[in-house]
Amino acid sequence: MDRYPPINSGYPHFLHGGDYNPDQWIKTPEIWDEDMRLMKLANCNTMSIGIFSWTSYEPEEGKFKFDWLDSIMDKLAANGAYAVLATPSGSKPAWMSEKYPQVCRVKADGTREAHGGRHNHCRTSPIYREKCVIINTELAKRYKNHPALLVWHVSNEYNGDPCYCDFCLEAFRQWLRVKYNNDPDKLNNEWWTTFWNHTFTDWSQIIPPDNSIHGLMLDWKRFLTHQTIDFFKTESAPLREYTPDVPVTTNFMGTYPGLDYWKFAKEVDVISWDSYPSYHDRDDDWKYAVETSFSHDINRCLKGGQPFMQMECSPSVQNWKPVNKLKRPGLHRTEALQCIAHGSDTIQYFQWRKSRGGSEKFHGAVVDHCGHEYTRVFREVAGVGETLLKLDDILGTTVKPETAVIYDWENRWAIDQTEGPRNEKKDYLPACVAHYRQFWSAGVPVDVINMDCSFSTYKLLIAPMLYMLRPGVSERIERFVADGGTFVTTYLSGISNENDLCFLGGFPGPLRKLLGIWAEEIDVLYDDEKTIIEAVEPNPAGLSGKYKAGLFCDIIHHEHAEVLAVYKNQFYAGKPAVTVNTFGKGQAYYVASRNDERFLRDFYTCQIRKLNIRTVVRCNLPKGVTAQMRSDGKHEFIFLLNFTRDKYVIDLGNELFRDIENGSEVLSHLELPGYGSRIITKPV
Questions:
Q1: Contact between residue 442 and residue 609 where contact means Cβ atoms under 8 Å apart
Q2: Where are the extended beta strands (E) located within 24-175?
Q3: What is the largest CA-CA distance in the chain?
Q4: Residue 637: closest CA among 666, 609, 613
Q5: Which amino acids are annotated catalytic?
Q6: Which helix (H) or strand (E) is 579 found in, with range?
Q7: Secondary structure of residue 429 in the 3-state scheme
Q8: Model pLDDT for residues 272-300, shown as the tens digit of each residue
Q9: In this structure, how many other beta carbons lie within 10 angstroms of the beta carbon of residue 586?
């Protein structure tokens, strides 16, 4: 598919807006009218409403008050704007916690949490589920035909934090009964409970957490995802019943480790997520841009390339970091276009108008405490809105990369919980981003997938630290390579099965035949300790000279693989450090150590050339600049994004492009100011 339908067919344009909290201003309704005026000036067309409004909806149990929301919905419709209408379960009313204490979570030590904060409800509590269904039914019935209703925003930033109440523990045990066919012996075997005499003889004996049983802890995390999804489905049921044509979403949080978004993605109609990069915390802003692009690409891939929603970002500043620096001029537009470039069909903010009080009163907003439009931030937001008005041709388009990086939540859980070979700075996510960065810098689109996704459409598949292998994965990787694909993996791969039981017969387990190596031991180095690897000449993988390596160093034997680099020091000097094995029509590489940036650049530059992987533009990009693309099959829409303070001129060669914003021709050279961005297009 070259173009997906709009998020809601009733509004076939980019959405631009933010989290709006009009119930904070009920006593000053004149501000509501001023908000409508300012929304038009900011070119905003969509507001997320009611995210934390339960008490405003239901000040007393069973007594509903929607007149204020009626006014806001009507005002939005009258002004040609729309609502992403939220259900309020992210923060429960005080009256509910007081009357029904079971809705509050229980800690691991058995004490119940007091009312306060947010996102701390028990997802299993029958009372809480009942109350959510009641309020959501009221909302769905009341607004099902309202012209302002565009999307349902269910709850807010679900977390995977556990509750240890009796309801949750019994639900977990029931989940285990289903998974293990009501057979405790099967569970004991899969969890290897004879270790430390942890064998269970009755389901009631299973009580998390127990960090010594890794299979238990993995299943506990899987259960938390399962239970959160089940709670989401309960919340969503009345919305789907009364408004079957209105899309339903909930906002994810990038690579947040508490929930497996690959499983959650199946239950939402459109992916949405909240993006808060930490720009200006260091000089290399572009490295934050790489990390953000990585998360954008995950969210595009969660539903197979379907455009997503950026539900939240800050238009100016955050408030929760140690030092909260203002976004420098120009960066907001470039950050917004980066999001569009990687597949979003919306730009939305937290927040529209700054709160007067509470913990987020200094968090960035489109409308500051001054209350007017004469601010730098407001002007930049209005400028983004003006640009979005010109991008209808891009709406619904996607990209079909030839390269994929595997980032898998369950694999991360398994790596994080295992004790050894390092217990700090295992850095699975940074390792994945480091490999991804080489393609971002070269202007090569990348999919970020999990190990259950199809591999067949790619030329190059990269799986850093593929520690866990779920059933069937190694066989699918073998087929991918045998059919002509190129596979790259690293140290700490092929170690355990889905329940963190180590493979027997030599690592990398089921990948040993494909990779043609045996990993005998793995050495780990201190943070500031380095070793050296050296390329074998001549080198078919583009490696040359010596490279620094650190943290992880696999000591491997090449069984039928070709050696491309060797260690130069330590007691394993002369042992292979990089290998390649021809398998069927393809090749499989093993990188035995965590190597420096120059190694990754040389290695992947060669792969891009060898595999004829297409770059978005035919030129070398300066450090900190990327080129990303979306296409409808007839035209390519190219985003040139500069995440540095420096001005650059990009040489586009002899190709003819058109500037999508002003329609002018772009020939040969294109200037990008510091933190600047351009969108150009050409026929396919």
A1: no
A2: 46-49, 82-86, 149-153
A3: 78
A4: 666
A5: 157, 312
A6: strand 576-583
A7: helix
A8: 999 999 888 777 889 999 999 999 999 99
A9: 21
Distances (CA, A) of 451 to 293, 436, 455, 474: 20, 16, 9, 9
Q: Please, what's the b/e burial string for 238-267 (b: 16 or more CB within 10 A of its CB; e: otherwise)?
A: bbeebbeebbbbbbbbbbbebbbbbbbbee
Structure tokens at 574: 């002369």
* pTM exceeds cut of 0.85: yes
Contacts of 560 (CB under 8 A, 6+ apart): 516, 581
Q: Name beta bridge partners: 680.
A: 638, 659
Q: What strands lie across the sheet with 677-683, from one edge to the other?
A: 625-631, 635-642, 677-683, 648-659, 665-672
From the list 450, 443, 412, 399, the residue with the least C-alpha distance to 290 is 443
Token match 């039914």: residue?
137
- Could you tell me the residue ranges of all domains in the chain? 403-610, 625-683
Output the pLDDT for position 120.
87
118 pLDDT band (50/70/90 cuts)?
Answer: confident
- Burial-class residue 65 by CB neighbours within 10 Å (0-12, 13-18, 19+): middle
Cα torsion at 61, 62, 66, 69 (round to 10°)? 50
Beta carbons within 10 angstroms of residue 186's beta carbon: 12
Q: Specify whether domain 625-683 bears CATH 3.90.550.10.
A: no
Nearest CA-CA partner of 176 in 231, 122, 213, 125:
213
Comparing C-alpha atoms, which of 574, 302, 310 is closest to residue 447?
302
- Residue 80 DSSP code: T
Decide if 161 contacts 105 (C-beta within 8 A).
yes
- Contact present, 313 and 348 (Cβ < 8 Å): yes
* Rg over CA atoms, the chain: 26
User: For residue 16, is it left (φ>0), alpha (ψ between -120 and 50) or beta?
Assistant: beta
CATH number assigned to the domain covering 403-610: 3.40.50.880
Span 616-651, pLDDT tens digits: 998 899 999 999 999 999 999 999 999 999 999 999
- Type of residue found at 500: D
Contacts of 87 (CB under 8 A, 6+ apart): 50, 132, 135, 136, 139, 152, 153, 154, 155, 235, 239
Decide: 96 and 60 in contact? Cβ < 8 Å: no
Q: Under a CB-based contact definition with an 8 Å cutoff, are residues 408 and 451 in contact?
A: yes
Residue 667: pLDDT band with limits 50, 70, 90: confident
